[in-house]
Amino acid sequence: MTGFIVTCEHAGNEVPAGYAHLFAGYEGLLESHRGWDPGAIECARELASRLGAPLFFSTVTRLLVDLNRSLGHPGLFSEATRGLSPEEKAGILDRYHRPHWTAVEAELRRRTEGGSTVVHIAVHSFTPVLDGKERRADIGLLYDPGRKQERDYCGRWRAALHGRFPCFAVRRNYPYLGVADSLPTALRRRFPKGYLGIEIEINQRFPLGDPGVWGNVMRVVAETVPEAFR
Prior knowledge:
By secondary structure, the chain is of the alpha/beta class.
C-alpha cells in the first residue's frame, strides 16, 4: 500500500507574541521571500485535499526558526534570532521546531511500521531572482538521485507536468539540491525503507501573479501526483 503526507514548513510569516521585539528593523525582511514561501500553503492544501492526505504546516516565520533545517545547521536561526541565549533558542525549538518534526515522524512511523510506503511531499516556493540572478525554472522537483524510487517517481512526475504544461521549465534538483539539509533529507536517514521524500519548489511568480493562472497551476500540480505514481 502507498500513501501520501504533505508538509509546508514555510507557510507564513507570523511572529508569535513575545518575539515581536526581535524583528524591529526586520519588517521588510519578514515580507520578503526570506520570511516565508508565498503560495506554498495554498498549494499544499490543494495537494492534501486531492490526495486525501494529512497536512502538517507552520505559519510561523522561518526567520524565528527554520523548520526545514536540522538541529545544529547554521541556517536554523536567522540574523534576528542568532544572537539569542542558548536557553532562549532552546525554548523556540521546543515550541515550534520539535513539534513539527515530531508530528511528521510519528505519522511516518505509524504508517511504515504497518508495511505501507509513504510519499512525503514538502511544498515550497522560490523567488524568481536571487542575488541578481534569474532562476530559470517554473517548477523544481527535489529528491535524492541515489534513491531509485525517488528518482523514478520524479521522472514520471516531471513528464506528467510537462505533458500538461509543455511550455513550463520543470527541472529536477533545482534551484536546490534534493540532498541538501532539509526535513526530507533527515527523514531519509530515519526511514531507509518505505519512505520517499520529495520537495516541490514553485516559482513565486505564479502565486504573486494572475490568480487564474495560479489556480490552474495548483490544480495541475495536485492532479499529476497520483498520475505519476501509477
